[in-house]
C-alpha cells in the first residue's frame, strides 16, 4: 500500500471518532405524530385537488380551442396537434383522480380514527379540506 493511502485511511478513521451526529429526537407523544400526519396528508390532498382541477380545466380549454379552430377552418395539421395535446391531458386525468381519491381516503381515515385532536387547528384544517374537496371524489 502506498503511504498516501495509509495516511488517508488514518485521517478518515481519526475524524470518524471525533465526528458527532445529532441525536434524533423521538416524537414527544403520539398526538404530535398524529398532528404532523394531519398536516402532511392535508397538504397532499390540497395539492392533488389543485392538480386534478388544473388538468380538467386544461382539457376544457383545449376542447374549446379545437372547436374554435374547426369553426375558423384552420389547417387540419394544427387541429390534429391540438387533438394530440388534448389526448395527453385526458390520459393524465385518471391517474390524478386516482391519487386524489387515495389522498382523500387517507386523510378521512386519519380524521375518523382520532377524534381526540378535534381542538387542534391541524384537525380543523383537515376537516375543512375534506369538506371542500369532497365534490371531486369519484367512486
Characteristics:
Methane Monooxygenase Hydroxylase, Chain G, domain 1; 4 helices; 139 residues; flat; mainly alpha; 79% helix
At a glance:
This protein is mainly alpha-helical and 139 residues long.
Could you please describe the fold and organization of this structure?
The chain is an all-alpha fold. It has one domain (31-136): Methane Monooxygenase Hydroxylase, Chain G, domain 1 (Up-down Bundle), CATH 1.20.58. Helix content is 79%, strand content 0%. It contains 4 helices and no strands. α2 (30-72) runs parallel beside α4 and α3 crosses α4 (121-133). The longest helix has 43 residues, at 30-72. The protein starts with a helix and ends in a 6-residue tail after the last helix. The mean pLDDT is 86. Residues 45-72 form a coiled coil.
Terminal-residue CA separation: 67 Å
Largest sheet: none
Instruction: Please tell me what the overall shape is.
Output: flat
The amount of helix comes to: over 70%
SSE-based structural type: mainly alpha
Oligomerization status of the protein chains: single chain
| CATH-derived topology | Methane Monooxygenase Hydroxylase, Chain G, domain 1
Number of domains: 1
| Rg, Cα atoms, Å | 26 Å
Keywords: Chaperone, Coiled coil, Cytoplasm, Cytoskeleton, Microtubule, Signal
GO cellular component, one term: cytosol
Signal peptide: 1-17
Family: Belongs to the TBCA family.
Amino acid at each position: 500500500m502506498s503511504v498516501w493511502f495509509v495516511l488517508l485511511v488514518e485521517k478518515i478513521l481519526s475524524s470518524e471518532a471525533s465526528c458527532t451526529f445529532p441525536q434524533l429526537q423521538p416524537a414527544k407523544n403520539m398526538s404530535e405524530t398524529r398532528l404532523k400526519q394531519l398536516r402532511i396528508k392535508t397538504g397532499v390532498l390540497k395539492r392533488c385537488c389543485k392538480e386534478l382541477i388544473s388538468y380538467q380545466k386544461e382539457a376544457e380549454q383545449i376542447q374549446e380551442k379545437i372547436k374554435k379552430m374547426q369553426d375558423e377552418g384552420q389547417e387540419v395539421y394544427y387541429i390534429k396537434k391540438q387533438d394530440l395535446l388534448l389526448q395527453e391531458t385526458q390520459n393524465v386525468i385518471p391517474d390524478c383522480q386516482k391519487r386524489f381519491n387515495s389522498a382523500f381516503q387517507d386523510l378521512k381515515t386519519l380524521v375518523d380514527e382520532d377524534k381526540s385532536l378535534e381542538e387542534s387547528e391541524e384537525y380543523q384544517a383537515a376537516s375543512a379540506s375534506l369538506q371542500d374537496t369532497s365534490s371531486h371524489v369519484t367512486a
